[in-house]
């Protein structure tokens, strides 16, 4: 699983607790012993429970139960619980709840996407794009993994993926085709993928020996025919569908013959409904 630093978790705590839990202090309950339980109100996939547990431990709360990320959970199940002082419990409460609701929601949505694709073609991979909210990548990627979705591309340093935003700096439409032998020489251990918006672009790039083609915002009715054309040029080329793919149309894209479906829709999935309950020990 992905490594999430203490620095990030400390930052999340500090955002919500700059100094003290003022309410618990003025009420005089801060030293009283209690327990907290996070219970799911609907079925889903657990994600980032380990990070929420670590936050509790940082706040001197003894963790009593923690369901592992990637576990299917049913309505009413306790996924995380702990015991400690009232002030510490309140410091952990919202930070942990926010992490759990959002991350479990992403994992649950990711699993639904994967399940829909697997019904059509289990050989099609579902991957997550880079369109995640800044500053949350570690938690979001771990949540996607918990739901069975791998990252498409973690950052610019990872893969060679040519967009039209790169092409505008080249001299003419054939520049990339002419450049392909040089790119392949420079990137022996990397695949070269190019995003296209038409079958004409795709055909030229495929004939030039590119490793993969990413079709952007192509209707699924057209994409199926495009895949057949490109596979005739090179049966080993990787074909990726991207742009506007979500829970409502992913099955149609899974049936087009593509190898990979890239989507950001899992990042916008509804947070899982989770309740937090405290009580005195």
What does the model show?
This protein has 281 residues and is an alpha/beta fold. The protein folds into two domains: 6-110 and 270-280, Aldehyde Oxidoreductase, domain 3 (Alpha-Beta Complex); 113-268, Alpha-Beta Barrel (TIM Barrel). It is 41% helix and 21% strand. It is built from ten helices and 13 strands. It has a seven-stranded parallel β-sheet with strand order 7-6-12-11-10-9-8. A four-stranded antiparallel β-sheet has the order 3-5-1-13, covered by helices on one side. Helix 3 (49-58) packs antiparallel against helix 4. The longest helix is centred in the middle third of the chain and has 35 residues, at 86-120. The two termini are 34 Å apart. The model has no long low-confidence stretch (mean pLDDT 94).
Record keyword descriptors for this entry.
7-stranded parallel beta sheet, TIM Barrel, alpha/beta, 281 residues, single chain, Aldehyde Oxidoreductase, domain 3, 13 strands
CATH superfamily of the largest domain: Aldolase class I
CATH architecture of the largest domain: Alpha-Beta Barrel
Order of strands side by side in the largest beta sheet?
A: 7-6-12-11-10-9-8
Secondary-structure-based class equals alpha/beta
Largest sheet: 7 strands, parallel
- The H-and-E topology, N to C, reads as HHEEHEEEHEHEEHHEHEHEHEE
The level 1 CATH classification of the largest domain is Alpha Beta
N- to C-terminal separation? 34 Å
Question: What is the domain tally?
Answer: 2
Radius of gyration (Å): 23 Å
Task: Let me know the number of strands.
Answer: 13
Helix content: 40-55%
Mean pLDDT: 94
Principal-axes geometry comes out as elongated
What's the CATH topology label of the largest domain? TIM Barrel
> How much of the polypeptide forms β-strand, as a percent range?
15-25%
């Amino acid at each position: 699983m992905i490594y999430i630093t203490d620095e990030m978790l400390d930052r999340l705590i500090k955002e919500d607790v700059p100094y003290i839990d003022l309410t618990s202090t003025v009420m005089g309950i801060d030293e009283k012993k209690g327990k907290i339980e996070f219970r799911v109100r609907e079925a889903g996939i657990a994600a980032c429970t380990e990070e929420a547990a670590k936050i509790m431990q940082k706040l001197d709360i003894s963790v009593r139960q923690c369901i592992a990320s990637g576990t299917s959970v049913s309505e009413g199940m306790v996924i995380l619980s702990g015991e400690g002082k009232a002030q510490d419990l309140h410091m952990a409460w919202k930070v942990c709840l926010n992490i759990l609701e959002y991350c479990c929601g992403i994992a649950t949505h990711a699993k639904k996407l994967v399940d829909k694709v697997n019904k059509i073609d289990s050989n099609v991979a579902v991957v997550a794009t880079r369109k995640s909210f800044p500053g949350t990548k570690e938690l979001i990627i771990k949540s996607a993994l918990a739901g069975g979705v791998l990252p498409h591309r973690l950052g610019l340093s990872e893969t060679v993926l040519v967009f039209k935003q790169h092409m505008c700096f080249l001299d003419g439409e054939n520049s990339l085709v002419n450049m392909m032998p040089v790119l392949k020489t420079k990137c022996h251990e990397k695949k070269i993928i190019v995003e296209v918006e038409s079958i004409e672009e795709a055909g030229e790039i495929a004939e030039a020996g590119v490793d993969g083609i990413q079709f952007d915002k192509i209707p699924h009715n057209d994409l199926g025919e495009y895949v057949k054309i490109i596979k005739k040029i090179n049966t080993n080329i990787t074909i990726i569908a991207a742009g506007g793919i979500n829970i409502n149309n992913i099955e149609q894209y899974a049936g087009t013959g593509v190898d990979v479906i890239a989507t950001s829709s899992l990042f916008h999935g509804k947070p899982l409904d989770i309740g937090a309950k405290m009580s005195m020990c």
